[in-house]
Fold each of these.
Amino acid sequence: MDATEKLRLVEGFALEKGVLKPNRKLFIVKPEDVRKIFESLVEKTGYEGFYLSTITGTDLKDENKVSLDYYIVLLPEEETIVIRTYLPRENPVVESIIDIVPGALAGECETYDLLGVLFRGNPFLKRGFFTPTELAEKNVYPLRKDSGV
């Protein structure tokens, strides 16, 4: 499967498409489709057809949502694409992908500890891993814009 076919696979889930600098294709998807995308990539390309580079989360306080970006490198073309989804800020929950892509562990744990996004099905989530203990004990998420940190 070449890059064009991989992009078509991801495009099938996209609500919107765009471009991020530097020339990275962006696909905005429903939260429930994130896991389906990774399942499809593994099924169609195998584990050698892509890798998950990172997961980033952004608090969009004024919009009352959290943005999650999954940076995926398509191989062997080395083209980076971004899968983005939005979660409600008051209950940011998405299905974990660590059973499909074990490399997602660090990104899921960091985003949970610093921003409060719950990755349902990830048994390794805990507070105080990236966040100082005194903040975790007060249930403060440092990357939340109203955290006071």
Amino acid sequence: MEDKALDQVQYVNMAVDIHHIFPKKWCLDNNIDIERRESIVNKTAISAKTNRTIGGAAPSSYLVAIQNRAQIASAQLDDLLEAHLVSAEDLRNDQFDVFFARRRENLCVLIESAMGKSVPRDVEDGHGEEDSAQFGEWEIEEGD
């Protein structure tokens, strides 16, 4: 909602934190498994103000609220989402499965570019069961 570069000052002033893209409540209501709901693929850095606007609403709803409160055009918001490697179309259509697979691949490509080598993709298309049995649920869950 701020459309500001995140330097150290802005990070503190905007109370930036990591939050769900598809909110936890929406995921629970739509039977999204805990692994994908709590995955870094479904999270990004946003300001506290933006997070309060999102609440537990579907992306198709909260994007409209963000546009109205920030007084920005949908194309500008789409550009901001793309900067987070998030497909605006997937969010505007509440397409979690498509969003998850696409963003997961985009994050893998970004990591590969930074590392200069390939990233293992151990779960086909982001839809399989990942084995996190070695973690307790408290290590997967988060407070919001």
Amino acid sequence: MTRVRPVDIVPSLLSADLARLPEQLRQVREGGASWVTVDVMDGHFVPNLSFGPDFVRCVKRLSPLRVDAHLMVSDPETVAPWFIAAGADRVIFHLEAVRDARALLRRLRALGAQAGVAVKPGTPADGLLPLLDEADIALVMTVEPGFGGAAFLPAMLPKVAAVRRAIGERACRLQVDGGINLETAAAAAAAGAEVLIAGHGVFAAADVAGNIRALRAKAQDAQEGTCP
């Protein structure tokens, strides 16, 4: 029997109202979340620019929430240590951007952070599977990365399920990112996702804490409905 772990909802600050960041971080905690994610985009790997290490420092000063940095950048080997030095608790890079993912996972963990590896929708799951013993997180993108608010790609659900089967009893957790709302949270959890990144699904409506609780309840109901 595959171990069942509680579903975590991790709000993406790309969709937060930065003019109200302290308040929104407080609401995230009220909703029971313990992590937030900072989407890092360099304008090369994806066609958008976003946050740098100073934003991570700001979040860490404002809140005890743990921070993961999702690096959508073309040179994660150079960039990742900047974010660990800024206080990121976990760094996730893209398989497509590195030559030796295993070496980078080991390096990030040696620097004191959790380490994860992500794949875009067009990248088969096969490249993730040999890394599951090294990674803390395996991330399957359920949208094309670059912009918040994109629609969930249901065609990614078989990939999510395949990675879940491959993880088995390993400590690595399976994360999905992109287009998460009440409906898609349930579908992703039923396929085996344990960590759901949600931006618009958390911050688009006023009740941030309530949105997190609703997403978690929906995902856990779906997860429990598929357990043997």
